[in-house]
Inverse folding.
């Protein structure tokens, strides 16, 4: 058993057990039941070695996809590799830019590229190596196409046109972008505004890349807040238009766009005949099928207090694992640490949650929820996750304690991966 850096704790009626820094622990908190109806296997979230858990989710009244206006979608994976394990972190560390390996039955094509301001990794399993590479290329082509539609950094994108027309006139959107806006507004309502695509003017006040970062002027924060709010985004589905009713409002899809791209990338891999694969969109990871050897994809959940360690592992297939945390992007101003995740209700970075991991079949939804629960904090964030069918999560608070969503207890098998 490895030593624990910082306290590890399961909360609420799931039981408690704290390990002080440096002490060894034998007890592992219950882990996420990500099985859904198919009985997918998952593994423990606390200190290594991994524990395997097999569990099933109970039925709830409405699924998360139904709450947010969509049906089932295919999943994605993302993260950093550690001894063959994909570790979910804020971005994907550099791996080989195209590696083909495999057994007689299947070949793996894998390529890492910089997209949407993050490192992406696309992996395809296919009996034909040439077909595997065609699938990877097609997935990246689709990701590029989506970025051209919604990036606020591309002047010709639909989102840039929308922002330029704020307070002036409605803008006709493509059906897929219009639907994305509608789903984003649904998540905003679901989370009480903790997720909000109109945050962009607030986010621009915080320069996390500055050599000598400074806090924005409170008056500037108040002015930016005046343009924030999902109610300022008016959708006319019949006309196919979106109107920003306040000239100060600006929208951005940075907290949902990579999950959207991950879903699309997996869809393309499937269309090209891949039997399994992963799209890792800078931390928004969606996996489908299985690895070449028939085993599930293995995902490690990174410790936000120490990027070289993991809390534990998940074995997933047809699931998304998305982690949002401040370990990759943050600033220290006058001795205070500020996360890159800005609360759209206050205009200031979140403090209570250091890392939020969401597991569900839809990478887009998981992406939005990971941001939302980071903003809501431990208690409210877990309440949102607990209310959604097929969604589970793990939060690490500012003290390094682990908090799990309610459906996490299950049969725990204390064994290494064979």
């Amino acid at each position: 058993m490895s030593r624990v850096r910082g306290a590890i704790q399961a909360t609420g009626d799931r039981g408690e057990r704290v390990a002080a820094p440096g002490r060894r622990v034998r007890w592992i908190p219950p882990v996420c039941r990500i099985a859904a109806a198919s009985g997918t296997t998952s593994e423990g979230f606390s200190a290594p070695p991994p524990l395997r858990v097999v569990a099933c989710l109970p039925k709830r009244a409405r699924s998360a996809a139904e709450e947010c206006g969509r049906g089932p979608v295919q999943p994605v994976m993302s993260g950093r590799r550690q001894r063959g394990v994909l570790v979910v972190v804020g971005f994907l560390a550099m791996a080989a830019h195209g590696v083909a390996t495999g057994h007689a039955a299947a070949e793996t094509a894998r390529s890492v590229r910089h997209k949407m301001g993050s490192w992406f990794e696309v992996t395809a399993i296919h009996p034909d190596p040439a077909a595997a590479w065609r699938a990877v290329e097609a997935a990246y082509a689709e990701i590029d196409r989506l970025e051209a539609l919604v990036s606020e950094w591309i002047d010709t994108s639909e989102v840039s046109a929308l922002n330029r027309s704020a307070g002036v006139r409605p803008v006709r959107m493509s059906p897929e972008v219009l639907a994305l806006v509608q789903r984003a507004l649904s998540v905003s309502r679901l989370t009480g505004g903790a997720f909000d695509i109109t945050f962009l003017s607030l986010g621009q006040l915080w320069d996390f890349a500055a050599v000598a970062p400074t806090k924005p002027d409170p008056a500037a924060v108040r002015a930016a807040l005046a343009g924030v709010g999902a109610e300022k985004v008016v959708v006319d589905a019949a006309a196919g238009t979106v109107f920003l009713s306040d000239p100060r409002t600006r929208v951005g899809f940075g907290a949902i766009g990579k999950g959207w791209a991950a879903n699309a990338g997996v869809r393309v891999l499937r269309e090209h005949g891949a039997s399994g694969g992963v799209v890792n969109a800078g931390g928004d990871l969606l996996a489908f099928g299985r690895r070449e050897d028939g085993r599930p994809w293995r995902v490690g959940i990174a410790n936000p207090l120490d990027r070289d360690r993991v809390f534990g592992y998940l074995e997933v297939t047809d699931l998304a694992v998305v982690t949002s945390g401040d370990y990759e992007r943050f600033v220290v101003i006058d001795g205070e640490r500020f996360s890159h995740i800005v609360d759209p209700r206050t205009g200031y970075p979140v403090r209570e949650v250091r890392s939020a991991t969401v597991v569900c079949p839809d990478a887009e939804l998981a992406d939005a929820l990971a941001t939302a629960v980071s903003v809501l904090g431990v208690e409210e964030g877990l309440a949102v996750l607990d209310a959604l069918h097929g969604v589970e999560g793990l939060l690490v608070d500012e003290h390094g304690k682990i908090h799990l969503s309610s459906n996490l207890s299950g049969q725990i098998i204390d064994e290494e991966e064979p």
About this structure: Residues 129-150 form the longest helix (22 residues). The two ends are 17 Å apart (CA to CA).
